[in-house]
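Now for a specimen:

…
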Amino acid sequence: MKFLFSLILLFAAVLATSPVYAHGDNAHRSEATRAAADKNGDSSAAAPATEADDEAAGAHGRASEGIDGAETNRMVPFLKTLHPATVHFPIALLLTAAFVELAAAMGMVERAGLTVRLLIYTGTIGAIAAASFGWIHTGFWFGGDTTMQLHRWMGMLIAVLGVGLALIAHRDESGRILLRAGLAVIAVLVVAQGFLGGELAHGPDHLGLSLT
C-alpha cells in the first residue's frame, strides 16, 4: 500500500506542475514591454522600442530554451499523448478484477482474493495515471459539452473509487460484500467511461448504435 500511495503522490505532483510547463513567458514579456512604453509616454517612439525589446526578449528566451526549454518543449507534447495510451490499463484490470470476483462468488474459482487484490491495486494505479494524463492533455480547462464533462469527472470518480476499493481489499479478508458491490459499481463506470472516451475520440455514435 505504501507503493500505491507513493504513486498517487507522484501523479498528483505531475498534475500540479503541468500548467507551469504548458504556458510560456511570452505574455509576461508582452506586459513588461507595454508597461515600459506607457511609462515613456511617447507612442511613436515606444513602438520601435517595444519591437526591439520583444526581439531581445525572444532572443534571450531562445537562448535559455536551448538548455532547459528544448527538453520541456519536447516533454509537454509527449505527456499529452499519454492519456490515450494509459486508459486501456484500468479498463482491462478493473474489469478483470470484477469478473474474477464474480467467478469466485459463483464458486467457479477458489482463493481468488490475492488475484483480485493485485488487479485492484494495479487497476487503481492505472486509473490515477489515466486521469492525471487526461488533465495534462487538456490543461486545467473546465469547458466542453456534456460528453466531455461526464468523461472528465467520471474519470476522477473511478480513480477515487479505485483507491477506496484498494483500501477495502487490503483490510477485508473475510466479508467481501462491500468489495463486490464496489467492483460492480466501478465496472459499470469503467464501461461507460470507455464509451464516452470513444465518443470524444471518434465522434458521436462511434459504435453505430443510434436507433434514429
Q: What stands out?
A: The two ends are 49 Å apart (CA to CA). The chain has two domains: 22-78, 81-202.
